[in-house]
Write a structure and sequence with these properties.
- The chain is mainly α.
- It has one domain.
- The chain has helices spanning 2-5, 10-26, 61-64, 67-76, 80-83, 88-97.
- It is globular.
- The two termini are 23 Å apart.
């Protein structure tokens, strides 16, 4: 039925929603302060963008799978061209096409 209706899987819709919210937090478009520290560009891996964040340490599963640790892992692997897009709507469209 998902194929007939051309709907995405629920997990993919949630992933995109989390990344769009993180985008809004990063660019101060919502009244939530970023509790994470940005990485220095010289410490980035080959797959990370210049707006990558340090993934917070997790000592238990409920923290490991909570919003910030989970979403930062996804955010850090987005391409540079996607994280630098200028509106949440364009960012969402780019995520849908990836």
């Amino acid at each position: 039925m998902l194929t007939e209706l051309n709907w995405q899987l629920l997990a993919e819709r949630r992933r995109i929603a989390h990344l769009v919210m993180f985008y809004r937090i990063h660019y101060h478009l919502v009244a939530i302060t970023m509790p994470l520290e940005s990485k220095m560009s010289s410490l980035l891996s080959r797959t990370e963008n210049s707006l990558a964040y340090i993934i917070p340490a997790s000592h238990c599963d409920y923290h490991l799978h909570s919003f910030f640790p989970r979403t930062v892992r996804e955010w850090n692997f987005l391409s540079q061209s996607i994280v630098l897009l200028n509106t949440p709507e364009v960012f969402r469209s780019a995520l849908l096409s990836v």
